[in-house]
Amino acid sequence: AAHRLVEALCERDAAGAWSITVIGEEDRPAYDRVALTTHLEGADLAYPAHDARVTVVTGERVTSVDRAARTVTTSAGRVAAYDALVLATGSSPFVPPVEGRALPGVFAYRTVDDLDAIRAYAEGRTTGAVVGGGLLGLEAARALQGLGLRSAVVEAAPWLMPRQLDEGGGAMLRRRGGG
């Protein structure tokens, strides 16, 4: 979302009057999370480089906002002033609060680093399980298959992609699927 916003701002600033700073917690600039699974196939997910109006700060997260002073402070102690502030916080993976979630071999599926860890752990293994049958869960299962693992998807709802499909759509999918 932040990357798309920066693109839109740069397109609208034909005079080049704006200076934009993007601060991100990951150690790499923004990348295409929608195509995350293709990272395992060797795809470069990085968005094209920004222009000179854009400063990208990686490996730091904003820890405080001082609205009166119009500044943000990062985890590294960097203080950045702003005229307008957009908080494009992204999302955090939901990891069910179940016993064993911190054991080796249990991963979130959210970042390039997550996929690199999954790839390393998958070497020499034959099976994997994915908790969550939403869009990202199905992508994770596809990624495991791409790594040569048999994968199973565990979903609490009575059909896959429960947030993407309402009950009527889910019922229709069940009928067409024969059960």
Protein described:
With 179 residues, this protein is an alpha/beta fold. It is 25% helix and 18% strand. It is built from 4 helices and 7 strands, in the order H-E-E-E-E-E-H-E-H-E-H. The protein has helices at residues 2-12, 112-122, 135-146, 167-177; strands spanning 20-24, 54-58, 62-66, 71-74, 79-81, 127-131, 150-154. A 3-stranded antiparallel beta sheet has the order 3-4-5, with no helix packed on it. A two-stranded parallel ribbon has the order 1-2.
What's this model, at a glance?
The chain is of the alpha/beta class. It contains four helices and seven strands. The chain has helices at residues 2-12, 112-122, 135-146, 167-177; strands spanning 20-24, 54-58, 62-66, 71-74, 79-81, 127-131, 150-154.
Count of extended strands: 7
Largest sheet report: 3 strands, antiparallel
The best one-word shape is: elongated
| CA-based gyration radius | 20 Å
Mean pLDDT: 86
Please give the share of residues in helix.
Answer: 25-40%
Order of helices and strands: HEEEEEHEHEH
Number of helices: 4
Strand order of the largest sheet: 3-4-5
**What gap, in angstroms, lies between the N and C termini?**
38 Å
Main structural class: alpha/beta
What amount of the residues lies in strands? Answer: 15-25%
Low-pLDDT stretches are 170-175
